[in-house]
TrEMBL record:
Pathway: Alkaloid degradation; nicotine degradation. It comes from the Bacteria. Residues 26-102 form the 2Fe-2S ferredoxin-type domain. SUPFAM superfamilies: 2Fe-2S ferredoxin-like, CO dehydrogenase ISP C-domain like. Residues 1-28 are annotated as: Disordered. InterPro entries: 2Fe-2S-bd (IPR002888), 2Fe-2S-bd_dom_sf (IPR036884), 2Fe-2S_ferredoxin-like_sf (IPR036010), 2Fe-2S_ferredoxin-type (IPR001041), 2Fe2S_fd_BS (IPR006058), Aldehyde_Oxdr_Iron-Sulfur (IPR052914), Beta-grasp_dom_sf (IPR012675). The lineage of its organism: Bacteria, Bacillati, Actinomycetota, Actinomycetes, Kitasatosporales. Keywords: 2Fe-2S, Iron, Iron-sulfur, Metal-binding, Oxidoreductase. PROSITE patterns: 2FE2S_FER_1, 2FE2S_FER_2. One of its GO terms (molecular function) is 2 iron, 2 sulfur cluster binding. This is Putative xanthine dehydrogenase YagT iron-sulfur-binding subunit.
């Protein structure tokens, strides 16, 4: 058995993990905010911890750590997910977009980020990155024709779902805001609906 030590370094140059080669770690490549990252990852490590601790991307927050609050929402291959529930090794080869990379390479904020600022759609701001990532995923889902619980059954299958206040509220119901900024959040999202 090969017992050579493997060291993994973070963006700041500090050693993140030092371990022997064993059956509980795998080399995993994730494309995060447009940049590839290859890391040796413990099979039990969730995406949220990898983003925050290994890549210093602290926008996604650890709220409940049970997938119930939405504070950790990021996009994986364009779909919104609770990063606290996904094992990082299962995402080998996936494209991950966090709040830090939502606007792409540009210096201008994403339209949702701008709308949240203009509408003052936050108070403490803890849930805001997850709310914005969830809203971005929700807009893409509706445009692709994915219905929600409140979508009119007469809506043609596979065609874009029209978004009104009820649709927005239903589709964002998995993201909690302890401060109660829901009316402003819904208004901010409505501002960017095409």
């Amino acid at each position: 058995m090969d017992t050579r030590s493997v060291r993994q370094y973070g963006p700041s140059g500090k050693v993140l993990h030092a371990m022997g080669n064993d059956q509980h770690h795998s080399e995993t490549t994730l494309r995060v905010n447009g940049k590839p990252h290859t890391l040796t990852v413990d099979h039990r490590r969730v995406l949220l911890d990898l983003l925050r601790e290994d890549l210093d991307l602290t926008g996604a927050k650890k709220g409940c750590d049970h997938g119930q609050c939405g504070a950790c929402t990021v996009l994986v291959d364009g779909r919104r997910v609770n990063s606290c529930l996904l094992f990082a090794v299962a995402l080998d080869g996936c494209e991950i977009t966090t709040i830090e990379g939502l606007s792409g390479d540009g210096e201008e904020p994403h339209p949702l980020q701008r709308a949240f600022l203009e509408r003052d759609a936050f108070q403490c701001g803890y849930c805001t990155p997850g709310q914005i990532c969830s809203a971005a995923g929700m807009l893409a889902e509706a445009a692709a024709g994915h219905p929600s619980h409140v979508t009119d059954p007469a809506t043609p299958s596979g065609e874009p779902v029209p978004l009104d206040r009820e649709e927005v509220r239903e589709r964002l119901s998995g993201n909690l805001c302890r401060c109660g900024a829901y009316p402003r959040i819904a208004e901010a999202v409505e501002d960017v609906i095409p």
